Amino acid sequence: MEQEESICSPSHAGASSGEQYWCNKSEIIKELKKQTRLAGPLVVVSFLQYSFLMISIMFVGHLGKLSLASASMATAFASATGFSFMLGMGGALDTFCGQAYGAKQYNMVGVHMQRAMAVLAFMSLPISLLWAFTAQIFITCKQDREISMHAGVYARWLIPSLLPYGLLQCQQRFLQAQNTTLPLIISAALSTAISYWFNVFIFAMYIKFSPTCSQTWTGFSIDGRKKLLNFLKLGMPSALMVCFEFCAYEGLVLMSGLLPNPTLETSMMSISLNISAGVFRIPYGFGSAVSTRVSNELGAGNPRAASLAVKVVMLLAITESLSLSLITVALRNYLGHLYSNDDEVIRYLASIIPILAVSNFIDGIQGVLSGTARGCGWQKLAAYVTLGSYYLVGLPSAILLTFVFKVGGKGLWLGIMCGSSSHVLFLAVITMRTNWKLQAVKARERVYGSTVATSIQSNQESEENNGVQGVESASDAFRGPEIRDFCSPQEGF
């Protein structure tokens, strides 16, 4: 990626104080086109891949309340303990691959993917063992025994899908970092009716033989088995960032099983979560797009372009989330028929939909803010924010409303909305206070390791000893013209 000219100019009022810029209309439109071209395919891919679970729940729901409740609890457990972990840990590649590609360190893009594949393959073993004892875990948690036994059978049949799902996340992030989206759509479309393994095979063939990956994938190397701890340092916070959120939402299904009439409550909760997760595919696609844009621009040393990308995606997210929420409310009396033939379940779901629509709007904003965090490499900070938002605010509020004030299933959704609102608020404050030039410096340091820091230090010593001002040093070459001469006293995040 070539260094781009500054797309935002310092405002006269704020030029001396930091990060305030004005952007002309043509540049905003240009960035909008970039994001829609990137986000469109990613939304389609995300939805097609999620359709495996969505369609399964739809079919099972028509078999009866027991089948729906069992499959839903098993799916919720698998998502919280396995799929979300793989998804989150793969998110570390949004930072590593995106910033390496932006800095033109093409060989490292493939090396990072190899490290991720090795780590995720190893992590699939203990998770598979955990899934094998799903029934016993549910019974220990005081869930209905019949539902627990059926859920255990369903969970065991999900085990073969775990490893390919993890490898798929690595391949997808590898291509996404290069703004290569066509094979993602083709593979997802072809494999929707087959399996994750076919998806992995299609991606592998494309990466191996496509000329667009000739510089970023040079084959398996010894470097791909080195420095795995470096990946884990960002991969684990990235996994926790997603797992904390998934576990909070999937915990609603387990809590619904403790309410009177657990079959009805669990069915309603599983369907509403399924709808919410399906709707979330769109903002998740936008989040993936902004993650790529931000990481690429920061790696290339273009902090102003990264800042504009975040502003544009926020506009897209607000528009999309509001539109989808209104559509969901308009269809509230019809959505239940997709999942169940039971009139009681359908009526109950219709009463929950308005609350669900508000939750979807909040989650839409959260999705793109989390994408920004991945692009900048804030996974550790975001994990703390997620933990505090959902486990100090969201789940306690849900328990209080549901079991103390006896609001019922609606209380679970109202409580978790308190957590998601806190999540959005904290991430928004962090993003608004971000010093983008400093983030570009950190991105270059992450890509080049100690080379940048050493070069900066050597340059400073040279200037002190020789009194030379404005001399281009090795650090300038690394950091790029956009971030040269930046050491703002207002560091921000």
TrEMBL record:
Protein's organism: Corchorus olitorius
* Pfam families, sorted: MatE
Traced from the root, the source organism's taxonomic lineage reads: Eukaryota, Viridiplantae, Streptophyta, Embryophyta, Tracheophyta
- According to UniProt, the name of this protein is Protein DETOXIFICATION
**Family note:** Belongs to the multi antimicrobial extrusion (MATE) (TC 2.A.66.1) family.
Give UniProt keywords alphabetically.
Answer: Membrane, Transmembrane, Transmembrane helix, Transport
GO MF annotation terms: antiporter activity; xenobiotic transmembrane transporter activity
As for subcellular location, the record says: Membrane
Tell me if Transport is a UniProt keyword of this record: yes
Span-the-membrane segments of this chain are 38-61, 73-96, 117-139, 182-207, 312-334, 346-369, 381-405, 411-432
Q: Entry's InterPro entries?
A: MATE_euk (IPR045069), MATE_fam (IPR002528)
Record carries keyword Ribonucleoprotein: no
Q: What is the membrane topology here? A: Multi-pass membrane protein
GO CC term (a single one): membrane
Task: Say which domain of life the source belongs to.
Answer: Eukaryota
Return one Gene Ontology term, BP aspect: xenobiotic detoxification by transmembrane export across the plasma membrane
Major place of localization? Answer: membrane
PANTHER family referenced in this protein's UniProt entry, alphabetically: MULTIDRUG RESISTANCE PROTEIN
